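Table S2 (text version). Query chain:
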Amino acid sequence: MANATPSTDPWQTFSMSRITARRKITRLTVGKPTLAGEDLLAVEEPLELRVNGRRLAVTMRTPGNDIDLAAGFLVSEGVITKGDDFNTARYCAGATEDGVNTYNVLDVTLGPGVTPPAPSLERSLITTSSCGLCGKESIDAVRTKSSFAIADDPARVDAELLTTFPDRLRAGQNVFEKTGGIHAAGLFDAATGALLVLREDVGRHNAVDKVIGWAVKENRLPLTGTVLMVSSRASFELTQKALMAGIPVLAAVSAPSSLAAEFAAEVGMTLVGFLRGDSMVIYAGGDRIVSRNEQAA
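Corresponding structure-token output:
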């Protein structure tokens, strides 16, 4: 096995060769000659996540920040709640018949005294890059109880400051700039607007897990006083992941689902959609979004 501590991800030294891939294409414009060339695509590969040697799930993801992804996934599933719960992670050899290490099988060792995932949590299906809940065994299993209460989080976000987040998220999307086909999630400080971390992945739920996993490694859970900004719609799975990490505000450039809005209101989360230009739509928790005039008063 290839060792990797929670603070070190081997992908960071040679990740771009696996994050993007070149493919020969034919570019066609009606009324003009066809052109042969190459295009750069975002890579999508399976990652098998094991905990203490036992397979927990297989997810389709963009390679890179895999340890963050594993840690965030375990927070989302309610397995861990703090940095000390996540001990080590190792890429496992033997993923192929000839024993080659593909860096697509990651085995996590939990901290002392941490209860391993129950067998019922094991996903029976591959989680695709478009679905973070695929493989759940029942409707009840979709809702995971959080260790953090966010309803009383005193975070307040200046509306004008919030409108700057989408462009700042977009400016940090290096892989999207090259491929045009990848999601991003960024964590911002609600008070100052500082961008704390940004992660990209073909799966929007994976990008969020990578952000949460970064917070696990930094021992920052719960993420009080923060805003999670996503470059996609706000689905139920993203609101639940935000809750599991103690994030009080979720903002998206597109629409939320009805269940996401209902869930956000139920747990006391602020949910903002259609955050574009100088406007937004607030679906829940509007008291956290304030104008500068209101702050002055």
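Notes on Table S2: Residues 177 and 227 are 23 Å apart (CA to CA). Residues 1-16, 135-139 have pLDDT under 50 and may be disordered.
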